[in-house]
Specification:
By secondary structure, the protein is an alpha+beta fold. It has two domains: 86 residues; 120 residues, Alpha-Beta Plaits (2-Layer Sandwich), CATH 3.30.70. The chain contains seven helices and four strands, in the order αααααβαβαββ. Strands 1-2-4-3 form a four-stranded antiparallel beta sheet. The chain is rod-shaped, with a radius of gyration of 46 Å. The relative contact order is 0.10. About 5% of the residues have low confidence.
Length: 223
């Protein structure tokens, strides 16, 4: 075994000595080796020098892509804001009516005057008009709920919205009541109707129809 190792060692030494002699004698071999070593050195040192630059370029590309996504999102938000501003400008006059549709106070007197005005316009007779308990100042300590059905329907309103019941009855002929209902439907302050009934009037108004409506009016306290 030792003899084999020694032979291999001598063979390698002879091979290296021949290369050294060849390197010294032949100009072309010496130039090729020097060029190979130069290129190897440039490659090795170039990798160490270029690597941070490559890493920086990759990071910059990632940041640029992230910035482009952010710009797209901002452009979309700007577009949405512009559309919202345009919608607000176009509907500014309508928005002022929101305070009438859903006021901050119960304001039953305003609604009652409108009902009375419609009744007079269509030559109807106002037979009855009443409301449930309404807080004048502050909030009521308890809320009276007539039955379980009304209690379940309270969930139709958001938690901050308050409401109270209003009931009225008018009498007149068919065409008068029909015209009244048409205008009543488009009143600025809407009513959530619980019951709407039409029947024949008795007593002093034979042949007349009686329209009875029970519903609730909403308001949003400013507190």
């Amino acid at each position: 075994m030792a003899t084999g190792v020694q032979q291999n060692s001598q063979l390698y030494r002879r091979y290296v000595r021949n290369l050294a002699l060849l390197y010294q004698k032949r100009q072309d071999v010496r130039a090729f080796v020097e060029l190979l070593l130069t290129l190897s050195a440039i490659t090795i040192f170039g990798l160490f020098a270029i690597r941070p630059t490559i890493v920086t370029i990759i990071e910059l590309n990632s940041q640029i892509k992230g910035g482009q996504e952010t710009i797209k999102l901002l452009d979309a938000k700007i577009q949405s804001l512009a559309e919202a501003q345009e919608a607000y400008t176009n509907n500014r006059a309508v928005l002022s009516l929101l305070g009438t549709a859903v006021p901050e106070n119960p304001s039953p007197e305003n609604y009652i005057r409108q009902v009375e005005g419609l009744t007079s316009r269509h030559s109807l007779l106002l037979l009855d008009l009443s409301t449930s308990d309404i807080p004048v100042l502050g909030a009521m300590s308890t809320e009276v709920i007539p039955d379980k059905t009304k209690e379940q329907e309270e969930n139709l309103f958001p938690s901050q919205v308050k409401n109270y019941e209003l009931e009225f009855a008018v009498s007149g002929d068919y065409e008068q009541i029909r015209a009244f209902l048409r205008d009543f439907e488009f009143m600025r302050r809407p009513m959530l109707e619980d019951t709407v009934s039409i029947g024949l009037s008795g007593g002093d108004l034979p042949g007349e129809l009686v329209l009875s409506i029970t519903g609730r009016l909403s308001y949003i306290p400013s507190e």
